[in-house]
Fold this sequence. Notes:
The chain contains 21 helices and 16 strands. The chain is an alpha+beta fold. It has four domains: 8-115, Rossmann fold; 144-205, Dna Ligase, domain 1 (2-Layer Sandwich); 213-347, D-amino Acid Aminotransferase, Chain A, domain 1; 353-465, Carbamoyl Phosphate Synthetase, Chain A, domain 4 (Orthogonal Bundle), CATH 1.10.1030. A seven-stranded antiparallel beta sheet has the order 14-13-10-11-12-15-16, with helices on both faces. Strands 3-2-1-4-5 form a five-stranded parallel beta sheet, sandwiched between helices. Strands 6-9-7-8 form a four-stranded antiparallel beta sheet, with helices on one face. The longest helix has 18 residues, at 255-272.
Amino acid sequence: MTVHPIQKVLLLGSGALKIGQAGEFDYSGSQALKALKEEGIETVLINPNIATVQTSAGVADKIYFLPVQPKFVERVIEKERPDGILLSFGGQTALNCGVELFQSGVLEKYGVQVLGTPVQAIMDTEDRDLFVKRLDEIHIKTIESVACGSTEEVHQAAGELGFPVILRAAYALGGLGSGFCDNQEELERQAEEAFSFSDQVLVEKSLKGWKEIEYEVVCDRYGNCITVCNMENLDPLGIHTGESIVVAPSQTLSNHEYHQLRALAIKIIRHLGIVGECNVQYALDPMSDDYRVIEVNARLSRSSALASKATGYPLAFVAAKLGLGYGLFELKNAVTKTTSAFFEPALDYVVCKIPRWDLTKFPGVERMLGSSMKSVGEVMAIGRNFEEVLQKALRMTCQGMHGFVENHDLGIKDIPSALHDPTDIRVFVISKALQLGYTVEQIHQLTRIDCWFLQKLKHIVDIDFRLQEFRQIARLASDPGEEGALEYIEDPLFIEILHEAKVYGFSDFQIARALGMEEYMKMEQAVLLVRQWRKELGILPIVNQIDTLAAEYPAQTNYLYLSYP
């Protein structure tokens, strides 16, 4: 094994909790601290957010509840004299702070070594001019853009590129200050906001409507690379990935597209010299295999936490070990304990992430979603098919919804506008549109969501309609006074649709409501009755297989899930 000389490491946290920052990086920071402790290294953490796992007693050896800002970090470095510092586990706040400490000479002054990705590689990914130049060296396509330092330069760049354009604030997280502009008035307003977050604003040609794809890549100091997970946004480019419904692995890519983007991601990471974990985001033309690299995050991101939990591959844990100088081939897989970390997970299941918004708590708030984050959290569901995981995830958002169908009416009057303009409830607008008879092609033209996803959503609605055809059978079977009442549920067609509904993620509540049972009994009773019917008909998840697998692979029990055969 590689012997590292590091005895004490300073880890920068993600700062105060706010939308788009801090909470989602607690996972990466706590995993890094765990990895360092395993190596017998003394750890020092700077993070003012006490509502995190990483600031809990026993996770780090020393904790400083201070702002993650250069002047405070310098004072801690002066006192603690760490051998190394980790910048990649605290989001954009830690990254920006580390770059400032490097440029001001603080790290050199105290002899602090930056572990993992070199600072120059970080600056190459964060500064748009440098980023484009570096990728041009290896002939990688990027979005046509101009880096600007003033409002006048923004107007000039927009004139050269032509509307529509998107403005992005450099060195910002969660899309702060970014937005799409279709005219001069919107450009003026967006430029003012963007410059309030950064001294550099990027004006880019809009590729709205293209697919957005992400790859999580791990690379060691020897240049060994693997892509741990690739993810696809259900929503097209134009909505921040933190605001999008995300599916892993990608569902609509051809084999050629998947391997093309994978090869490009590995080529990019090796060229930039990144050590540890990073995230590559692409825009992919849905009508061809043309692509553009949107950005490269030379750090752990919220997508990294999703990828870790989706695959069982501990990205942050491995990235911390790589920062100490290990090679991928020298590390053991943390789940199996026997195989090497130098492998790419293969998923035989689907994972879906859905953001959670609390926009209803703020009267008058703009509900439109765009390139700047508004979500306050997210949920993740695992299952055998896309329909199942989407319905599970929608239930978990705790917004009073029971899945994709059989929810309370949202009272949307202008369906075409609600489909065209993305909001936090657009997925439910799609449900209503399908129930009203909108075709997949009509919805695709309004939303630019891939037809594959829309066909799957239509499948859920079709199952719901078929369930509703058995309302009379359900009513007769629900009446204890009806002679031979339970014989009605033994109808082969009813058994078939009940089984299909469970396979594709319908809850017993949704089934009871589709069968119209709340019209003549309390929903609590209806749900229990549907569950009783399922048990009597043998429609049950394969829990016996879960027990067998848990006995054989106890370390992987957390990654097992119920599924209907």
